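Q: Sequence in, structure out?
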Amino acid sequence: MAQQKLETPEELFHYQLRSARTMEQHSLESLDELHAAVSDTKLKKMFSHHADETREQIDHLEQVFALMGYDLTTAPSPATTGIKNQAAGILEKADSKLHNQIALVSALGNEHFEISAYTALIFQAQALGNADAAKLLTGNIDQEIHTSKELRSTLKEMLS
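A: Exactly. Output:
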């Protein structure tokens, strides 16, 4: 079945919201894999905490679906599929002493993509006149920005 052509700003928003739901599911799967790959207790705790935040972000996305009157569906997220697959591939071929660093770099790349996705969704929700949806999405981006800072700081500390 061919995909319907997106013709309106609302259809584009709906599609990108569906893709964000997939993006966060990928993030949750990746966090489980990264948690298993790292040896550092601090990193394990960080990934567990972010997994809890990701579940909250999925809940926020589902609330936006409800606010907009959309069915809970998903759309492809090729970027996060790629980030997840790249991390798995590098972890597989790297010595275990590099796994902590690889996990941080992978998570950081994912966070930056998520920040970009949420930025667009927030602007679109505002343009569509849904301040409540924009507020929920802003809660998600705030967590993503915080996590990005935490990952950058931890990576810098690790490499110093």
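The chain has five helices and no strands.
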